[in-house]
Automatic annotation (TrEMBL):
Annotated pathway: Amino-acid biosynthesis; L-tyrosine biosynthesis; (4-hydroxyphenyl)pyruvate from prephenate (NAD(+) route): step 1/1
CDD domains named among the record's database cross-references: ACT_PDH-BS
Protein name, per record: Prephenate dehydrogenase
Broadest EC class assigned to this enzyme: oxidoreductase
Matches recorded under Pfam families: PDH_C, PDH_N
All residue ranges annotated as the ACT domain in the record: 296-366
InterPro entries: 6-PGluconate_DH-like_C_sf, ACT-like_dom_sf, ACT_dom, NAD(P)-bd_dom_sf, PDH_C, PDH_N, Preph/Arog_dehydrog, Prephen_DH
Signal sequence range: none
Native organism: Thalassobacillus hwangdonensis
Family the entry assigns: Belongs to the prephenate/arogenate dehydrogenase family.
Amino acid sequence: MRQRVTIIGLGLIGGSLALSIRKHPDVHVLGYDKNNESVEQALKAGAIDEEAIDLEKAIKKSDILLLATPISKTIEYIQWLDGLSLNKTLIVSDVSSVKGNVIEAAESVRNPMVRFIGGHPMAGSHKHGFQAAKAHLFENAIYVLTPLEHVSEGEIEQLQQLLFPTNARFLLFDRKAHDEMTAVISHFPHLIASSLVQQARKWHSKHPHLEDLAAGGFRDITRIASSNPALWKDIFFQNDRLLQQMLDDWIREMQQVKEMLQSNEQEAVYDYLVEAKAFRDGLPVKKRGAIPAFYDIYVDIEDQPGSLHQVVAYFSDQQISIKNIEILEMREGITGVLRISFQTKAEQRKACRILSDNGYEVHIEE
Ligand SMILES: NC(=O)c1ccc[n+]([C@@H]2O[C@H](COP(=O)([O-])OP(=O)(O)OC[C@H]3O[C@@H](n4cnc5c(N)ncnc54)[C@H](O)[C@@H]3O)[C@@H](O)[C@H]2O)c1
Ligand SMILES: O=C(O)C(=O)C[C@]1(C(=O)O)C=C[C@@H](O)C=C1
């Protein structure tokens, strides 16, 4: 049976979900955004079938509602649903980066027709708005679901079926585990990235050439500081208690590192770095885990027109399919480093052999 889905918020995440879901032949997608331009872009791109002009009417006819607005707005929409008289079950999900307050709002909803399943695709970008949306944004990403207790297995399955074309991998957690893990792995690192940029900004007035020296390391570790400040302000305040706890721990740890430096404890500093490297290197990149499962190779190429095309041509000749390709911002102006990802180890090994045989310097992270 044809399902009707309404998406509120057609920015980066809502737009990407819409583009992906529309691959189902039997799903009719209605879109709503407070910004008319986003609706027009979504219609033009074929991400939605029609605009939800009368939102209440659209929701009443829908089977599934996806909320992809800023977190505080998502909470307001959930509260508003309580007052709607619905005559059929409505599965409601969101995409919020923090779950505590969202789940609390959903638990206060007394409307028996509303079945809330929290959602959080662990993929995104530092860009925002529909123009940055991509159908493949969530490919191989973890998609966390936090269903309320009364939600049935069948309803979770129905949502997963709808989201199937995202090619994401679903994991179920409760709100506490979700918010602690995202604080550690996403929210706190974001704060640190912004603080590193702030530090560089202050030193910049003394050393105007600082920006020329900002090469691979600084750019890698601070990319996320270019994200949408409004979104991140919202995330920080939604998860403020845990962020403060992490800041306290971090300040304490930095104090210990400072003391090691002051007392010339070279071995202790070395051990600190070794321990961090071991954990970082052990993050699951090869088996399916918290980080998408790709088999990567790194290739040095000349920074000149045609170099990238030449590498890609070797793979298309041999029918090796590339899962992802990225130019790493290192050694700018000298050589480029390409990170090329493959789905299988066999493809990774074959690609490595072809390029090595053709004189390229290729690296594989073991
Ligand atoms: N950006 C990321 O990397 C990322 C990743 C995963 C989850 N999220 C979550 O996704 C949600 C949306 O973030 P985004 O990055 O897509 O932001 P975005 O700014 O690209 O999109 C938000 C959209 O919501 C619309 N909107 C705002 N208030 C509205 C309202 N009251 N009614 C209707 N539409 C409204 C905006 O016009 C905009 O189009 C957030 O809750 C965020 O926590 C973001
Ligand atoms: O790739 C990025 O730019 C992101 O910041 C994505 C990222 C993350 O921290 O990994 C950011 C917030 C979301 O809630 C989920 C994913």
